[in-house]
């Protein structure tokens, strides 16, 4: 599920990236890290007023880390994975889990945050058939119990929201910037969230070929390129939740949606959808606007 890493690790060689020449003169840029990857914020407006807005943005990124980081032992997600239960879960955590459930159902289970056990297994090396079978027994989003009182996992299960949390963070940052007088902003937290102004962005293949450019405003883009990073056994880093050895049919996909969280989640599952399944997806997920699926045979555009 860690497909958004490739936007950062490839130095914008794959995915949605801002193109030069699209910025107005008065632009303030901040660069840092969020949820284990590089992040950037571009603000259009008086630079002398930018710091309070950026401070609010950094606070939102810190909140996302406290909720969803797999690398912080004190995060809400790490505690859930370690203890198997998260009592009185924060409202934001429940909201992200609810969106995960909607995308899980809309994609026929292809978006599944419970793949963390599979991901960790592949990260350690080529798994044996027995180890793979055991990891598969510990997956399955439908087995997660969600309520305002507690989130409970079956024994041995672990979740990752790396296919959604970065988009959620980008949405919260954009809202914070607008509340502090900077509605015209471009937030890059692995996904792109554009504010009120128009921004020109490019969607590229893993080899750097530009697939298309877009002018975006009040929308979000997220991309996935499953072959941009591979495990030691050659498997792509985005794993099919039921058939981990299945290769994705698309080399690069892009989802445009009203929120970065939705675009993020959809682009993770999109790499395994057939053309027919992809065409049905916008009707199942309100807010999903455009899809791009590129493969050896060319590019398919929906919406």
From TrEMBL:
InterPro entries: ApbE, ApbE-like_sf, TAT_signal
EC numbers: 2.7.1.180
CC cofactor: Mg(2+)
Organism: Albimonas pacifica
Catalyses which reaction(s): L-threonyl-[protein] + FAD = FMN-L-threonyl-[protein] + AMP + H(+)
Principal EC category: transferase
Source species, domain of life: Bacteria
Organism placement in taxonomy: Bacteria, Pseudomonadati, Pseudomonadota, Alphaproteobacteria, Rhodobacterales
UniProt keyword terms in alphabetical order: FAD, Flavoprotein, Lipoprotein, Magnesium, Metal-binding, Transferase
Family annotation (Pfam families): ApbE
Name assigned to this protein: FAD:protein FMN transferase
């Amino acid at each position: 599920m860690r497909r958004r890493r490739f936007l950062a690790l490839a130095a914008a060689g794959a995915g949605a990236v801002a193109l030069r020449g699209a910025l107005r003169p008065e632009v303030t840029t901040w660069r840092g890290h969020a949820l284990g990857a590089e992040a950037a914020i571009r603000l259009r407006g008086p630079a002398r007023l930018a710091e309070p807005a950026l401070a609010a943005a950094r606070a939102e990124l810190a909140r996302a880390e406290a909720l969803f980081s797999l690398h912080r032992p004190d995060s809400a997600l790490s505690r859930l994975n370690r203890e198997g239960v998260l009592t009185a879960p924060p409202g934001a955590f429940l909201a992200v889990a609810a969106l995960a459930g909607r995308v899980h159902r809309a994609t026929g289970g292809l978006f599944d945050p419970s793949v963390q056990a599979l991901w960790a297994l592949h990260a350690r090396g080529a798994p044996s058939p027995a180890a793979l079978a055991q990891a598969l027994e510990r997956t399955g989003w439908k087995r997660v119990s969600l309520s305002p009182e507690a989130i409970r996992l079956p024994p041995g299960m672990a979740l990752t929201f790396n296919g959604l949390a970065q988009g959620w963070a980008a949405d919260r940052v954009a809202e914070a910037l607008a509340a502090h007088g900077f509605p015209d902003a471009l937030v890059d937290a692995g996904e792109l969230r554009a504010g009120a102004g128009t921004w020109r962005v490019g969607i590229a293949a893993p080899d750097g070929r530009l697939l298309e450019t877009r002018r975006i405003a009040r929308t979000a883009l997220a991309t996935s390129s499953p072959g941009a990073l591979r495990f030691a056994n050659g498997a792509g880093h985005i794993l099919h939740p039921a058939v981990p050895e299945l290769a994705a049919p698309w080399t690069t996909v892009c989802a445009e949606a009203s929120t970065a969280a939705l675009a993020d989640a959809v682009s993770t599952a999109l790499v395994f959808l057939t053309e027919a399944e992809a065409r049905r997806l916008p009707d199942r997920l309100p807010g999903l606007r455009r899809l791009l699926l590129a493969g050896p045979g060319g590019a398919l555009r929906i919406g």
